[in-house]
Write a structure and sequence with these properties.
mainly beta, 6-stranded mixed β-sheet, 0% helix
Length: 100
């Protein structure tokens, strides 16, 4: 699997494609605390999905941590107390701005 550096912290990351066709950066090493099931499909593409009770982790998938949750240089936005539950990260600072 090809590992590329993060633009913010320069640590290696692994780009995956989600079931919705979106790109998701994950840490390249498997992590039991992660919430992204990562596997390589028949064409060699690295795919990811969120395991659930209906579709649990399968034998060919490994759990990885999304990189936005572990990046030391990510932008922390101040939030109002109670605005987001504990363990939830706002992705607003990481979204690309649309051009006018």
């Amino acid at each position: 699997m090809k590992r590329l550096p993060c633009r913010d912290c320069h640590r290696p990351i692994l780009w995956t494609t989600t079931e919705a066709g979106k790109r998701l950066a994950v840490d390249p090493e498997p992590n039991e605390l992660g919430n992204a099931a990562v596997w390589r499909d028949g064409t060699g593409a690295v795919r990811s999905r969120r395991p659930s009770a209906e579709l649990p982790l399968t034998g060919w998938e490994r759990l990885h941590m999304p990189h936005v949750a572990t990046c030391p240089n990510r932008v922390q936005q101040p939030t109002l107390p109670g605005a987001l539950p504990d363990g939830v990260t706002s992705l607003d600072a990481h979204r690309r701005k649309k051009r006018p």
